[in-house]
Write a structure and sequence with these properties.
With 332 residues, the chain is mainly beta. Helices cover 10% and strands 39% of the residues. The strands form five sheets. The protein has a five-stranded mixed beta sheet, with no helix packed on it. A hairpin with a 7-residue loop joins strand 6 (57-66) and strand 7 (74-78).
């Protein structure tokens, strides 16, 4: 059964609403302590939320679905109902799955300090100050359209800000992207802090994959087809290599720091094997447009490579998806 580790890095007890687990009973985590909850395990799908409370008001919330679509976890952080502290969530041991702005409140206070008198007047009733005039808490974004625009100025792409794709609305892409899948089902790590809510794992939170970061390395048996996830950010170029050995095959994907000379975006595809291969590119199942589908049925493009040859494959800068040798599904 997957576990949910909730760590409070602050100097005070922190209370959280729990939805979906713990009999829907609130928990209070002591300062500099961790509380563990258990979610039902596979093959069951389990969903819920952990919401920080501030003076009885709901704030930042971590939302989780374990063993969701294709057996993956879906984790996201949201500030739709408010904020009063900083919180992040990730799969244990996988900082690349981290969601949330670890310094949300600090960034909110900076934005408020720089805001014009008109903006502050527009946000009355949604930003709450302490006796010294400092921002103490933020109200629900969903009830204040002007607050949504204000928060997007410093937190867009780091946390759910709007309602996302919902009831026929396509939502905002940067919000929908927060619902990207994790890697299988693992324990979840939630970190709360009044300061930096980065987990104590010495990893920086990559809100988007850095162009120089390695994407993934996968191993399979000789005739298995390999799927490798890719995210491109302009300007960047990913390098993908496929190598065939006598008893195994390996496909690695990584993003190189330098763009192509003409600023094109895409990947350098290398076939280091002794036989010709065709590689297929697929968009992600979730691409922030409010739709989902079996995109393995609709390859974006394919590239055939002779043995020991390379080719640059141009891709949209917004591409988030997979490259696979062959079309056999499942790719295990």
């Amino acid at each position: 059964m997957p576990k949910i580790f909730i760590t409070n890095k602050s100097d005070h007890p922190q209370t959280f609403e729990v939805h979906g687990w713990n009999n829907n009973q609130n928990i209070t985590v002591k300062p500099h302590s961790t509380t563990t909850l258990t979610a039902p395990g596979a093959p069951a799908t389990s969903s819920g939320a952990i919401i920080a409370l501030h003076g009885g008001h709901e704030g930042e919330q971590a939302e989780m679905t374990f063993n969701g679509f294709q057996g993956n976890d879906f984790l996201d952080m949201s500030n739709i109902v408010g904020a009063g502290g900083n919180m992040t969530i990730q799969q244990q041991g996988l900082p690349g799955t981290r969601k949330g702005d670890p310094l949300f409140m600090q960034n909110l206070r900076k934005a408020w300090a720089k805001a014009s008198p008109q903006t502050k007047n527009d946000l009355k009733g949604s930003i709450f100050l302490d006796k010294n005039g400092h921002v103490e808490r933020m109200g629900p974004i969903k009830e204040h359209p002007k607050l949504e625009a204000f928060v997007r100025g410093f937190a867009d792409g780091k946390t759910y800000i709007g309602v996302g794709a919902w009831k026929g609305s396509p939502g905002v892409k940067s919000d929908n992207d927060q619902s990207s899948a994790g890697h299988g089902t693992k324990d979840a790590v939630i970190t709360y802090s009044d300061g930096d809510a980065t987990p104590g794992d010495n990893h920086k939170a990559p809100h988007a994959l850095a162009p120089h970061a390695a994407a993934q390395a996968l191993l399979a048996q000789p005739h298995d087809e390999i799927v490798s996830p890719l995210t491109l950010q302009e300007p960047s170029t990913a390098a993908v290599s496929s190598t065939h050995h006598e008893d195994s095959e390996q496909l690695t994907a990584s993003a190189a720091a330098a763009p192509k000379p003409d600023n094109r975006v895409g990947i350098d595809l290398h076939n280091k094997s002794n036989k010709p291969c065709t590689y297929y590119f697929y968009d992600n199942y979730w691409n922030g447009n409010g739709t989902a589908g079996a995109n393995f049925d609709h390859p974006l493009k394919n590239q055939h490579l002779a043995p020991h040859t390379s080719h640059f494959v141009p891709l949209p800068a917004s591409f988030k998806g997979r490259v696979q040798r062959g079309q056999l599904i499942p790719a295990t």
